[in-house]
Amino acid sequence: MSLLGGDYIVVSGKLDPHVSVYSFEKIQQAIADKNWVPDPYGIPVLDFDAVLEAQVEVGLGPLHTEFDNDGYAYTSIFLDSTVARWSLGPARTATMGGSSRARCRSTTTSGICRPLGETR
């Protein structure tokens, strides 16, 4: 499954070592199902786990994510001074490459997360 095409929203911030990938389809479904709670100001907040597709731990201080034409994402890592390469695999699980400390968490039933190029 490619990150290209508008199916996903990719979010990161330099105080969290993760890149979160949200499914646009799941967001629309959560809104339709009213799967949200209001914050103290009455603004609806969607259930995090209901809309999350995958969460990739890329390193300390992820800043910017760019995409290539092959479905890979490249996230610059500020504190580690590196770039993490990752993608969503065929089962919509996140796979990592480019950072030896990278781990991923997936919300899919298969739950398989492994470095790019690893076959087992």
Could you explain the architecture of this structure?
By secondary structure, this protein is mainly beta. The protein has one domain. The protein has two helices and ten strands. The strands form three sheets. The protein has a four-stranded antiparallel sheet with strand order 1-2-5-10. Strand 6 and strand 7 (73-77) form a beta hairpin. The protein starts with 7 loop residues before the first strand and ends in a 14-residue tail after the last strand. Mean pLDDT is 76; it is low at 98-103 and 105-120.
Roughly how much helix do the residues carry, as a percent range?
A: 10-25%
Order of helices and strands: EEHEEHEEEEEE
Can you count the helices? 2
Strand portion: 35-45%
Strand order of the largest sheet: 1-2-5-10
Shape: flat
Which residues form runs of ≥5 with pLDDT under 50?
Answer: 98-103, 105-120
Q: Report the average pLDDT across residues.
A: 76
Rg value: 15 Å
Question: Total domains, how many?
Answer: 1
Largest sheet: 4 strands, antiparallel
- Separation of the first and last Cα atoms: 19 Å
Count of distinct strands: 10
- Coarse structural class: mainly beta
